[in-house]
Design goal:
By secondary structure, this protein is mostly helical. It has one domain: MFS general substrate transporter like domains (Growth Hormone, Chain: A, Up-down Bundle), CATH 1.20.1250. The chain contains 17 helices and 2 strands. It has a two-stranded antiparallel ribbon. Strand 1 and strand 2 form a beta hairpin. Helix 13 runs antiparallel to helix 17. The N and C termini lie far apart (78 Å). It is found in: Cell membrane. Pfam families: MFS_1. It is a multi-pass membrane protein. Keywords: Membrane, Transmembrane, Transmembrane helix.
Amino acid sequence: MTGGLPSRPGLAGGPVYLDSVGLEDPAGPRCAPTSEPLHRPARTTLAKAGRTARATRTKETAMTHVALPEPTTGTIVRAVTQRRILTVLVCSQILSGAGLAAGVTVGALLAQNMLGTTSLAGLPSALFTAGSALAAVAVGRLSNARGRRPGLAAGYLTGALGSIGVIAAAALGNPVLLFAALFVYGAGTATNLQARYAGADLADPARRARAIATVLVATTLGGVVGPNLAAPTGALAERLGLPPLTGLFLLSGAAYALAAVVLAVWLRPDPLLLARAEAAATTATTNATDSPAGPGPGLRLGVLVMVLTQLVMVAIMTMTPVHLHAHGHGTAAAGLVIALHIAAMYLPSPLTGRLVDRYGARPLAAASAGTLLAAGLVAATASGGSVAPLAAALALLGIGWNLGLVAGTTLITDAVPLATRAKTQGAVDVAIAIAGTTGGMGSGLVVAAAGYPALALAGGILALLILPAVAAAARRT
């Protein structure tokens, strides 16, 4: 010890007093500085170490402050509002999923029983799909003028009225009333699809496909549970003195009405109106003049993808219960196959949304074509109306439809400006509904003329038309 200070061996062999340069001794408390000089090599080395440490601390501090910008209040409020809107939409979609399952599962069987022929069994699907086309225009225009809340609520209420009409027609044995009611019932299907656009109104562009997917996947629960309630709701209908096949329409009427109430009461603030207000405020603040006045280049591709996937899906799906029934399977088997199909239509949505956000919509649109082709091949080669391969085929059919719908919806939403978004989306869904009508009407005729395998194979091949459209869009960009 020298002068009562701790020492360590110096670089030149003598003692080095640590506090002479203002450094702490790692082995003990800080000591008072001393005036005793250090050897020159030790002074030089410690001075360089001090400068390096100070420079490192300054750099780390600067990086910390630059890399973590705090979110603004407006960003936080928007995120909270978007979560609330998605929650309300999810609740309404669960209910409406149960509602739309009725027409898919027993609509064709109900018509077949009343008309006594298979050739017109695809007519119910065509009618409620045509009704959904008209409803898509009405819901889109009302949403564009007044907001998503009144548009969606009105659509679901109309679907509930259609369900009541179907029940009345079956009870009276009136085919004309049945077809008119199925047309009105289609409003529920249109509204269920229009809801996906509401989920995207306030979504961040980088997460838009995932927001759409969140709304779509909510339909899975109701869509899977609904068809499997065919037997118990049929028993309930019989106890009420109604034909057993009307049981699912009892369920759909109640489900659509509850979905309308959920939206009318809790979808606040209205996502489309709020998005427009925010866009107007941003434009006024920044004096922006470069916002697009018309649709972007993705609109046509998005429409084509969704039209083709809808046509193929509806055609094969509509005649599968009839095909099963022709081979001796009952309503329970058809309900199981349709339940798996609806699950595959909506359950993959979160994964599909992530893939679209990460890789873009065009690759997923191409994947939908390949998946639909696989579905057609499996359905066409299923022997003797076997339930297992047909269930697998309809699961693939649902997945292909899901890929096309999420990719196409994202393309359209990105391409259309807010001012005309709801109106354009409604018009697009009209084209989708017309494609579904064509598939539904044509499917019965094709099966009557050439059989179910020919229908399934033709549908899979038709889906391949998506591929050259995707390639052409890629070349243009």
